[in-house]
Amino acid sequence: MARPSLTRDEVLDTAANLVRQHGPEALTMRKLAAELGTAVTSIYWHVGNRESLLDALVQRTVADLGEFRPVGRTPAERVVSLARILRRRLRAHPHLIAMAHERGLTERMFLPAREALVREVHAAGLRGARAAEAVRAVQFQVVGFVLVERNRERAPVQQPAQETTAYDDPALARAFARPVNEERLFVTSVRALTRSLLEND
Amino acid sequence: MARPSLTRDEVLDTAANLVRQHGPEALTMRKLAAELGTAVTSIYWHVGNRESLLDALVQRTVADLGEFRPVGRTPAERVVSLARILRRRLRAHPHLIAMAHERGLTERMFLPAREALVREVHAAGLRGARAAEAVRAVQFQVVGFVLVERNRERAPVQQPAQETTAYDDPALARAFARPVNEERLFVTSVRALTRSLLEND
DNA sequence: ACCTGAACACCGTTCAAGT
DNA sequence: ACCTGAACACCGTTCAAGT
User: Fold this and answer.
1) Which among A196, A198, A201 is the top mutation candidate for probing chain B, defined by the most B β-carbons within 10 Å of its own β-carbon?
2) Which residues in chain B touch residue A133, judged by CB atoms under 8 angstroms apart?
3) Is this structure's pTM higher than 0.90?
4) CA of B25 and C1' of C10: distance in angstroms?
5) What is the spatial distance between Cα A61 and Cα A69, in angstroms, rounded to a whole number?
6) Into how many domains does chain B fold?
7) Which tens digits make up the pLDDT trace of B62-94?
8) CATH number for A38
9) Which protein residue lies nearest to nucleotide C13, measured between its Cα and the C1' atom?
10) On the CB side of A148, how many CA atoms lie within 13 Å of its CA?
11) Which of A35, A147, B71, B181 has its CA 20 to 30 A from that of B47?
12) Is residue B93 part of a domain?
């Protein structure tokens, strides 16, 4: 006993815990079964297979990202604030990003913020296809940035990358030698992109 | 016989072929050994293990990306052209992007283009830390975009994503319903980012 | 220096059988 | 409707033994 009846939610919860603590590669059907105190095969009845289990995990997490309340006085400022919120929320689930990416669910990750972004782009005076393109540009930018950034974190040695070229610009060489300030680079990038996109020329 | 002596390069070549034809997940040590006509364990002598084999594959491919010759009259135009070249080269190796990413080698992918980018940013009048930041912003943008884009291609059903919200902008709703024109979105994004970054204000 | 087969410790998944 | 154990078809890797 001690196991009244296995539910799909229980499977998902336990799986989510395993992922949170040891990463997605540690989530094997057999370990999960052990954790749940059931036979491996029981899991299959509830979630189909490993792939759809991970899919479900990603979807649940993305759905839980919460609401997006922008701050700032101009639409551009508010877009930047939305980007920062989305980045922070995604980074709060360290494994989500890679998991969603590996499962082809990257796009899902920026859907929660889309509505809020549309509102700001509208406020800036863009409509129709032009507005949609601006929203998509920001979405690709934010999610792409977070993907690259997360990747750098778990990157290996981070070799100096044969910094042979001198560039005739010592300050630039020093800047490249320093580690990247990601928050700063992110804000600079999003601000630069947004400024151009929201210009009504 | 028929196998005079196994070399590291031969292992890498055959592995690269397997990946090109069937994707990285099809590259198992056992299949590779069968393809090579050797014992599985021989491979280990030459390349260490599966992980470093894939690392070597990524590095070799990235090193083969070739030179970057920008076109255009203004630095901004030339930066955009560099971004397009890099994107095209990366997309020419469909599995490279995901492989590099999964291995924490994402950063490697944009090193070949860095030197050329620095030149243009210098030509635009930026120096030092400011120039380095502009280069990095473009690099993150390009690689992030390609990551997101590649991911969308192998994405599942591409569910309409509960397009419940009406937005009060039918043209925008239609734009979101249409598939993304990625080349166009890419150029728009890079151009927008570059324009702001290269402004000397 | 290079190659081998056997063995270990894992996987995900299927399926017939149980209650 | 739900759970089980046994079995299948894979993996990557190690290691002692060969030449």
Assistant:
1) A196
2) 175, 184-185, 188
3) yes
4) 18
5) 19
6) 2
7) 988 889 999 999 999 999 999 999 999 999 998
8) 1.10.10.60
9) A49
10) 28
11) A147
12) yes
